[in-house]
Amino acid sequence: MALDILVPYWGDPDLMRETVDSVLVQDCDDWRLTVVDDAYPDPEIFEWLSGLDDARVTVVLHPANVGITGDPGTRGVPGV
């Protein structure tokens, strides 16, 4: 059974790259990573994540910021 990892994103592109890279290098490859971009105005991370060639990584992009108490928008994402 895969480990599901859900990471919200708003703000620090370098920290998000470091976070995702730390998941990608795990010895165990039975995981799924979902990054929820809460409508951050700079598309840099969304574009970087979309360019990753790994089917285990999913990106959910909110059209508007819903904040920490809003719906994470992961309905329909397998395993989440």
Describe the fold and architecture.
- With 80 residues, this protein is α/β, with parallel strands linked by helices.
- It has one domain (3-61).
- The protein contains two helices and three strands.
- It has helices at residues 13-24, 44-50, and strands at residues 3-9, 31-37, 57-61.
- The model has no long low-confidence stretch (mean pLDDT 88).
Short précis:
The chain is of the alpha/beta class and 80 residues long.
Task: Give the key terms.
80 residues; 3 strands; globular; three-stranded parallel β-sheet; alpha/beta
Task: Summarize the topology.
Blueprint: E1 3-9, H1 13-24, E2 31-37, H2 44-50, E3 57-61
Parallel strand pairs: 1-2, 2-3
Q: How many domains, as an integer?
A: 1
The Cα radius of gyration reads 12 Å
Number of strands: 3
Inertia-based shape:
globular
Record the strand order, biggest sheet.
1-2-3
Q: How far is it from the N-terminal to the C-terminal residue, by CA?
A: 13 Å
Strand content: 15-25%
- Quaternary state reads single chain
How are helices and strands ordered from N to C? EHEHE
Main sheet summary: 3 strands, parallel
Low-confidence stretches are: none
Helical content (DSSP H or I, runs of 4+): 10-25%
